[in-house]
Amino acid sequence: MVIIMNKKQKKMLLRIIITAALMVLLAVLPIDGRVKTALYLVPYLVIGYDILRKAALGIIHGQVFDENFLMAVATVGAIGIGEMVEGVAVMLFYQIGELFQSYAVGKSRKNITALMDIRPDYANIEQDGELVQVDPDEVETGTVIVVKPGEKLPIDGVITEGETTLNTSALTGESVPREAKEGDEVISGCVNLSGLIKVRTTKEFGESTVSKILDLVENSSMKKSRSENFITRFAKVYTPAVCLAAVLLAVLPPLVQMLLGGGADWLVWFTRALTFLVISCPCALVISIPLSFFGGIGGASARGILVKGSNYLEALASAGIVVFDKTGTMTKGVFEVTKISPVGVSEETLLRYAAHAESYSTHPIAESLRRAYGKNIDMALVSDVEEISGHGVTATIDGKTVAAGNRRLMERMNIACAESDGIGTEVHLALDGEYIGRILIADVLKPTAAEAVRALKANGVRKTVMLTGDAKKVAEAIASELSADEVKSELLPGDKVDEVERLLAQTGKKEKLVFVGDGINDAPVLSRADVGIAMGALGSDAAIEAADVVLMDDDPSKIALAMRIARKTLRIVYENIVFALAVKAACLVLGALGVANMWWAIFADVGVMVLAVLNATRALAVSNR
Fold it and tell me: Could you list the active site residues?
């Protein structure tokens, strides 16, 4: 494994090596007395000058009680009583721990840094027949930009010329490329893999997808979890408390000895107080807790799951009820032909008449029929088109009268039609007054939808609920396919909020309610739930702004993955809290009793910090399991 360090880390490593070499040299040289004591100041200052400087600045600015102050007092005190080796060793191992922490933090930032690489450096625009690179911030809405193969799309827009394949992995975490052609909407952050395309921008860079995502991730650390806030408050009280305890430990026992008529062992108790200070340093807690959450957020982002803050990650770990919208969340949100039932004609003939009859309509059902037909429509064959509101359409196609619509249209024309045998919208067709069949059109489930619900239950979710504005029959059929525990249909947006309020009243004391929606029509519900998860539709504005968590590739199976990431991250946090406090408490007692010496103190401080940070970095790997 190759370890890559930045300039600051390399400098610290050099100082550690020099200090260690000097200590070995001083240990073997035949020098004693004050000269040796003075020489030990050299490695001490080499390794600890920055800690002493930070401690002094903290005192000047009134921020006294931090780990730099504790280390400075403890090591200077140790040197003052002649424990030169221990004093330098404490500072050396503390800096080794700091170097390790710095490297671990850098490693945990790797996924976030990779995400930041989606920010484009420039945009190409044509000027006087030549391509000129400009800052994306300077490109106005409506400008046509040129994106060459291998370049990032700098701004959201619509392709006006060319076709290509786009790599969306930086946004979704998935490696499957996406085909794009003239007329398709494209978003910033994708990489153009093949053809040269021209894109008319629809937003300014500051409002584009890539800009919003970067802002979301950069500000995620601002929203701290209860665990992080607890540790911050704990450290503010804990550090001055242990400093006061160390002073009392150094002063009270000798005074009691004097009052009892014995000899006051000032040096012994002062040494114990210094050991107590080194042990008490709260580095493990202060560093490892936010590092654990940062690792969890970074690991999630690598899989296309954007979490807006560690507070939402913590809440997600306690999810007991998951409520989800139907259209666009568990279903594709696009009508598709699911069944063709011809009577006396072929399937292709039935589709041909249906597609031609609906050739002038912009209705989603008409679009699905034309898409299923898959061939060019000869508009010259179509005439006398009449749309009958609430019923369907009639038209003359190649000299024949075609009627296409619902059952009411067939009844109106006195044409007997087959009974419904499926879930969805049926288009019945008649040719010159004779019934020729029906086509079933439905909003189909996403491939991973049923698996997503099963995974939620396997992850301990107590109840799954589907809310939709669709008809009861359709809603119940979809809910049955998903194995949802409860379904509510024919709801308006306000009704969904009422249902979420009802379910919130059913949650346990430590249980959270999660709502999953498409982020466009579900903003009121997303904001009302404990955690709102939006299907990002490759970065829709409404999704990013309304939700606490955004699934960039619209895959519902990632809801359970997000919960697993959250739960393992929180488990790591609790492990670090319990481990650090238990070891600290035991060593503090042993230090006060004189059982633990300065070397024990080094383990209690640096050793615990290194182990806690090592444990925290496990959060990075959660997303791969």
Answer: 325
